[in-house]
Amino acid sequence: MRIKILNWTVILVFLFIFSGLLNMQLMQGKRFSELSSQNCIRLVPQEGSRGRVLDRWGSVIVDNGLSYNVMVSPAENGQVDKALQAASRILDGNFKSLKENFGKKGAVSFMPVTIARNVDIKKAIALEELKPELDNIMIQPYPLRSYPYARLACHVLGYLGEIDLWRLTKLANYGYKTRDIVGFGGIEEKYDYFLRQETGGLSVKVDHRGRSAGILGFRPPSNGKDIELTLDLRIQKIAEAALGGRKGSVIIMDPNNGQILAMANFPNFDPSIFVNKSFDSIARLFLDAHAPFINRAISGLYPAGSVFKPVVACAALETGKMNSSKTYVCAGKMRIGNRDFRCWDTHNKQDLTAAIADSCDVFFYRTGLLLGGQAIYDYAVKFGFSRPTSVDLPYESGGQVPSPLSRKITKFKNWFDGDTANLSIGQGELLVTPLQVLRMTAAFANKGFLVNPYVVKSIDGQELSGQKRKTALNLKDSTINYIRQGMRKAVSDPRGTANMLSGLKVACAGKTGTAEVSRRASHGWFTGFFPYQEPKYAICVFLENGGSGHAATAVAKAIIEEMDKQRIIQ
Amino acid sequence: MTPYFKILIIAVLIAVIGILSIYSSTYQKEGEFWQLVYKRQLLWFILGLAFFFLASKINYRGLWDITYFLYGTCLFLLLLVFVLGIVRLGAQRWLRFFWFSVQPSEIAKLATVIFLARYFSTKSLQDLSLNVNRLGITRSLFLPLFFVAIPMVLVLEQPDLGSAAMLLFIFLAMLFLAGVRKRYIFLILSAIVLCLPLLWHLMRDYQKDRLLVFLNPNLDPLGAGYTIIQSKIAIGSGGLFGKGWLSGTQSSLRFLPESHTDFIFATFAEEWGIAGCLALLFLYYSLIKEGILIARRCADNFGRLLALGISSSLALQVFVNISMNMGLAPVVGLPLPLMSYGGSSMFLTFISLGILANISKTRAIF
Q: Does the model's pTM come out above 0.80?
């Protein structure tokens, strides 16, 4: 009887063990397998280098330098202290901070811990020589961004930093991980996917003390793709020099295809501070009220002022409300409703080309009133205002163009003639980016095409420009010619607002603008193109609170002069 | 096939599996000591076989006559451990004889089985059946408890909690199988339960740690809980068919401590998976089942109790060791019979099996 009980007990016990094994090995087998490989497989990462950035002629704007990281792998306690002591002697750092660096990360894992970054090559070699005695010191070469031209074109380039939570959630599906280094702003952000390198490395089997017990495999790191920009380094340098520390931006573009040759902004920043991790200067830049990280050329929204007048003129000519022979008399002011609208000067009798050349406000008040607000709005939209230009840079602003309709719909307010008058001279609620103004100018330069501006010419030799299109605006040739003549006259006519450019060897055409801002100094605008007959360059100069269009024209003059001097203009 | 051959074949199979696993867990370790481990186990195995043949040739009735001598010798050896024993892993459990070290606590297990088998197999005058159920509480409970308690306390003092607990389990199993009245068994069981808190205070710190990490291994994952976590990982990662012989990473890369002795089962399970475990469990079950069958066929009370005692002590050791490997029992130093590295355990198991074989052979003659 009791033997039977023994027999059954034994059977039950074995079934109990077997069911336990079923649970561990089959139900939870996968989890335990993972734990087992985590136990014994370590990846020693090896970084590839991020793609370089070149200008249109192939000179390197953003390069990769080699830096060296010092790593110490955990071993018996005394051995670590000895290694840290030796390292501190060579790195002139104090032992305590190295020990802290080590302790912070290396409490449990058997992975080597980075104790110092960006060690220069001499010190790296000195540390490497310690290896025979202290085999737990490792020197790992590490590619690091270097900027040979420092601040040059920093807003186009952007900078690098550790991925933030917002980007991580957005990009996690594309293989981005925490602590990845990604681009912020400029093409570093926009083309991060192409620029970024892939980390390879050795997978090593280790024993319980982290000592290598054989190599399982090696995946070579792959480098990021090089990106060639449309920027011309020579022109970019000239533009930045001409801007010379004044707040604002300069853009120079090929009006025929939208290739941006230079895009300069001030205030700017030095992207290498993010490489050196100088937190003080980074913090100071982020707190700067002048917003040095903003790419004013594409993200800044400003009133357009008189540079908007060609759009109004074009609308008037195209709709047939105006012809080339029509004249108005400017008496220095005009009464609309119960308010006087002033002109900046008294121009007497003027036709369209003269009004563009002299930037006569009264002429455009009248033209605008003839057209009506909605027609101006329609043509402004046609010229690409109120929406981004879809340039291949992040954080572009769209701007806004007011219209009777939208005011009615969004604000439940009426549109008055005063609003039309304001809009006709580019004031009021109109907000534009310098790049939008430049694109509008380019449409007159290339005789009627709206281009897509872009800065990236090719990725790893693969041309991208083929995909870029320009849209025909279907304007009459006569319209374009009149307005071009007006812009030319602004330079050639002694009374013209941009007359100071007339002394240049190359024939220019342009339009100045002085956009009034309440309580602060006016913004200065100049937008134009050259050579007049066969335009190769369209230029837009914008000076934030820079006083007047005159100051902006002076900047443009300096740029064109220098380009001519360096024989860039053929 | 005769029970004799069955036992022999199963034991040889298990021992060979053990040697293969020991080789797998040590072949990557550096040093002469580790390279010799599996060769020594092979030697213990061959010597163990010799002991098996010897034990199966000697009539087990002879054990009846020398029971007290065996018991006395066992106590003497246990005492000798405190004087001459070598200290390993913080415990004094081994006696050195020339080139061979003996673990007297292993001998104590078999000696206790033989002693209790003889004690309970006294016959009544009227018939040949056992008269244990007519004995009073003193003779059926206190007296045998006293005799078992002496070696148990000595083993506990080494300290060897696992073997001491094993002696207690063997005692309880023998009480049950000998037919002691159920109320006495309940009495001693409740007494043990009541004594458990007292035992807690008698335990050493590391033993307390082991019990605590048994309840929650993550209490101290790099200290006392490390072994059990690594052992569970080893067993679990085996999966269906295992990682293959010599391909286990947990044991050969030394993540699993004691992978060739107490945790040999984890090593085996990692490399052979649940398929291998099923085969191994079947082998152990067949061995124990064979012992029970021999006991049922045996007409002699002493022989029957002896066979039952040997089988149940084998079952207990297998159960406790595998449970410990799986994290279902606290970690106590207890080998897996026939598989774990160690001469004493191997010899004593083969001698026990030899006695079983002899009981099966001689039952007809008696």
A: no
